[in-house]
């Protein structure tokens, strides 16, 4: 699209089903903003490891964080190539044939080299941003991190430069002959459900906060 | 646990929060059986790639499949090290401090080398197993794959030998001083919701099948 920054690169060129791919920035950002968990891939001695992590999008970069003692965070710190993937599952797709069963989904893959955020104020803003990614408005309700807490936290940033989005939507592809079969075809919508907030019973009796009063993900 | 096969290995030794880790076979299998999407990590020229894939557990192995033309499947075929991660998100965890915010989750990481399944009958069983992993009983309702369809499908198997499970549950860790703050603490349960099946309107008018009559994931 005209005027839309392009996020394609040789590393994320879409090899298969290019009609499902999109480098459009707004699509990439919407998927990243709706997701809660990223799957982060790193390589250690030739072996890939994929671990679930909380994240946030902050403008044109992804923020990750974790304990300074974690192997994953120490590996990322050393400037290793990384892949961050966020997937939203939208539906189970039932075809009349086993072969054409599928899933509707939206996913984003971001590759690059993550850099450690060292400035203490930048770390403080990043922690607040990650909290607010998961629960908008929550950072202002909760106590900000102390300097000691920030020193235990490794914050990493990954530019959203080499990124691609992929999406499947709609019903199953069907072989014309299969439409005469006595087999049901359609989709089962899949969504992420959020239950009633459960207070932990510790501390003072405090009403459910504003950040949870109408909780939901953007785009849903 | 006595009598439970151990799935630990040097590659999957838990480095951090060992109290959240489990190599108990039953825990690994329950998480794999409940999940719908795996995040599969491979390495291409030193760069990790993490892609969402449908999968199934079949006894003591994981089954993956895709088009024979996909780069991912061709890379796996060559005997490259792989990491398959399945994550179930259970709750958002709100602490009185930003720092102690967390998520409750269960995840399994399986590493190893995937092998191509070449025998046509074994491929046929694998495709049915993957369909039944997503929707138990569905394989018997839908048309089995033709030989031509099977030739377009690459099936890979990965032994569940080097595997570990990780889990976080319960409320936030709190600093004692934070319990006097006027800030709500607790959890928001997260679950995967399945909507009413939507027929695609193609072909004959067929009632919603038995496989969808009480659809849900095992363990929920």
Structure commentary:
The structure is a homodimer of 220-residue chains. Chain A has 220 residues and is of the alpha+beta class. Chain A has one domain: Electron Transport, Fmn-binding Protein, Chain A (Pnp Oxidase, Chain A, Roll). Helix content of chain A is 19%, strand content 38%. The first copy, chain A, is built from 5 helices and 11 strands, in the order E-H-E-E-E-H-E-E-E-H-H-H-E-E-E-E. In chain A, strands 1, 2, 3, 4, 5, 6, 7, 8, 9 and 10 form a 10-stranded antiparallel β-sheet that branches. In chain A, a hairpin with a 2-residue loop joins strand 3 (47-58) and strand 4 (61-67). Residues 1-11 of chain A have low confidence and may be disordered. Chains A and B meet through strand 2, strand 3, strand 5, strand 6 and helix 3 of A and strand 2, strand 3, strand 5, strand 6 and helix 3 of B.
